[in-house]
Amino acid sequence: MASTPLLQIKNLHASVEGTPILKGVDITINEGETHAIMGPNGSGKSTLANILLGHPAYEITQGTITYKGEDVTEWAPEKRGQAGMFLGFQYPEEIPGVSVVNFLRTALSNKTGTDFTVLELRLKVMDAMRELEMDPSFADRYLNEGFSGGERKRNEVLQMAVLEPDFAVLDETDSGLDIDALKTVAEGVERLRTDTRGFLIITHYQRMLDYITPDVVHVFVDGRIVKSGDAALADTIEEAGYDAFRPEVGVV
Question: What is the share, in percent, of the chain residues with pLDDT greater than 70?
Answer without folding.
Answer: 97
